[in-house]
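[Meeting: bench + compute handoff]

Bench side (C.D.) handed over the final construct sequence. Compute side (W.E.) agreed to return the predicted structure before the next meeting so the bench team could plan truncations. Sequence as handed over:
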Amino acid sequence: MDDFDFQVIVESLPFLLDGLVISFQLTFLALLAGLAWGTLLAVMRVWGPAPLRWFSAVYVNVFRSIPLILVIFWFYFLVPLLIGRPVGNFTSALIAFSLFEAAYYAEIMRAGLNSVSRGQVYAGQAIGLTPRQNFQYVILPQAFRNMIPVLLTQAIILFQDTSLVYVVALSDFMTSASTVAKLEGRLAEMYLFAALVYFVICFSGSMLVKYLQKKKVA
């Protein structure tokens, strides 16, 4: 510990914070996009006609059966080929994360939709709600409320997974810490600091999940 250099961490903080902002941005945007697409997939799986149920099931099973890092590679190299121009490493990573996470959010939301009792649906019908209104105002809010702890847990996993974007040279927090570690020759300091930051953020999120679970039970 006598050789541990805290100064290199202090001097690198602005650069590391820029990387942390990118990690948070990617997490937040991928969460929103993945949740929106995942909810639609869940609706297809629960109430859609046979072709849509089949499509949703295949989509979810395919994306849950392949490594995320492979999906990132796919979209980093394939999207520019499909549209004929480069899209940037952040955009390609966002597309990959959104489509990948949607498969997990689809299963979470499917469980949430199935957790709403049929009595709630019948009550909405009894007061004259249309099927769309019943879904929008009765079913979906309850499904989201039931699944909030699990959705937050998946968000924590998503934040951890953003460290994989080093493969497309995106300067997220982990990539920034690795860059400083190699340039300054201070691998122990930077990787320990990175681990501490991830621990604090993810542990805080886990405590929030536990609080919400206890509140729900109470």
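W.E. noted at the follow-up: The chain has a mean pLDDT of 87. C.D. will use this when planning the next construct.
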